[in-house]
Amino acid sequence: MLNWVLDALRMAGMMAWQICWSLILGFLLASLVQAVVRREQVSRLLGDDRPATLAKATGLGVASSSCSYAAVALARSLFRKGASFTAAMVFEIASTNLVVELGIILALLLGWQFTLAEFVGGPIIIILVALVFRIVLRDKLIRDARTQADKGIAGSMEGHAAMDMSITGEGSLWSRLASPRGITAVSHIFVMEWAAVIRDIVIGLLIAGAVAAWVPQSFWQHLFLNGHPVWSAIWGPIIGPVIAIASFVCSIGNVPLAAVLWNGGISFGGVVSFLFADLLILPILAIYRKYYGWTMTLRITGVFYICMVAAGYAVEILFQLAHLVPASGHAFTGDAGISWNYTAWLNIAFLTLAALLCARFVRSGGTSMLHTMGGDPDTPPHH
Predict the structure, then answer these.
(1) Which residue among 27, 68, 95, 228 is the one 20 to 30 A from 106 at the CA level?
(2) Whether the Cβ atoms of residue 301 and residue 266 lie closer than 8 Å to each other
(3) Cα–Cα distance, 84 to 376 (Å, whole number)
(4) Do the beta carbons of residue 193 and residue 373 sit within 8 Å?
(5) 85-99, 106-120, 319-333: which has the minimum mean pLDDT?
(6) What is the rounded distance in angstroms from the CA atom of residue 228 to the CA atom of residue 40?
(7) Cα–Cα distance between 47 and 156 in angstroms, integer?
């Protein structure tokens, strides 16, 4: 039993080591963007569901947080401030599935083809969701959802979603970011983003390590219908989101488990649909119910699931036609040891940078903000 536990922890630790620098880089880039983009400006840009507005919602989501819980809370905040429901949902999808750090980690653990697939499948899901919402959402349902959203039911990320630490003033963008106030704002956003997502990353790594160490390949081969290529391709995008829902792992934390599933034999499209289903895990479905009510939650769940499955099929077909589907079984799942390669040097460099930002966060009084993570969105913290 002890050896089993140590094997799982070793694999989880190695996957963490492999993706460490990329996580820090991704959160730093997101912090820089959030330091210069005001939330009020975002909500004003997203007041309808025209294609141009949804394109803006996608772009703003890409530049936002990668934490699923924070993205869901922020989408609700934007909806309450005047954004259309569809634009808020598009923002939510983009902010969890089209962010830079996710693309880098996918390339490191699974290969660049999966990064490309994520950025091809993301727009497909967004277009499908927007089209289906036009059919299934009625004005009364949206009004009822807005009434429910205004009731002030706090979730685990309400305080985080309410915080707007963007900097304003004279001077160029870079001069504002390089100023003492700008550096402080970046450090605060950086640490708060980590505080929002660290739980899911750790849980995801532990689950992936345990699954990689304990679940035999024969189980995955039977589950994913290996040996039946056509049925496997059909079954993969259907079962992928179901596994995601059952795993309770969202955001970037599901990438290590995706690597395990890919080595286990799930189809290429199945991996894509699994990755996108981080917005359908059971805790987030419970948050949807609190935010928007049962009726809207059922609409969101059904539409998201159907569109994720459809996107998985579309990506599978497109990549098969382009001969871009890599050979399965070669994802990084922690089997290799630590060596003095580019990963080690990048980790040292970015961990040093993260330590400097954390020190700035502490010295500038940022620790008092951490208790606001689950606070009331209508009472944002003092900065």
Answers:
(1) 228
(2) no
(3) 22
(4) no
(5) 319-333
(6) 52
(7) 26
